Amino acid sequence: MDKSVLTRLVGFPATLIHGDPLVLDRWLWLKARLPKTRNDERLLDVGCGSGAFSIGAALRGYRALGMSWDDRNQLVAKERAALCKASSAQFEVLDIRKLDCRADLADSFDVVICLETIEHIIEDLKLMQSMARCLKPGGRLLLSTPYLLYKSMSDGDMGPFSDLEDGGHVRRGYSRAMLEELCAHAGLKVERISYCSGYFSQKVTAVMRRLWAINAVLAWALILPLRALPPVLDPIIRSLLGWPDYSICLEAYRSRQLP
109: which strand partners? Predict the structure, then answer.
């Protein structure tokens, strides 16, 4: 089904089911940390892709700015924002590796989000420092990235990981200590580390990837009925099996007491 048609039919939820089931997991994690607001709060989405999380944030009251290097993705994001009536979601084309060059964004945002992006960037500390500079004093960073100790869903999850920033992952993932280290060097205080995308999400995603190699439309249609199950089943399976979640999730804070 044409993605714009799907968004036109069902609105914002369609933006969460175009990709694999892990996208919904990330949104549910993010949504719980983005209280609805009428306070004109600004949010920066670093590596926004086709804009689902920027749009979702805008619908919760944030003035969202989504940034990604891909012109086509930004056009899709703008179209979907219009269809979802998310008028406070704006999008710009920017190579996020050059975020530090945007002096106009410094000290400007109440929230910066960066979901499943930092693992694509070789100079991850530079990106973390750039995102920290974009935060207002007292602002929050919400970030997710693959967990270093995940169990592979498909062969590609085992590597080899690229030495070049060619669109793939340049590292397997991050541990708690690695994220804490990045935050310490970026002047951020870690508030909480959590995880998302459990056993059932991973297994459904693995099946979808195999089917996708045969026929993308068939893969999407067969997986669609299963998408509602992971949020219900994964907490139960997690407690029974101790299966590691796919993503590690960071909540960090820029101190209000600046030097």
Answer: 135
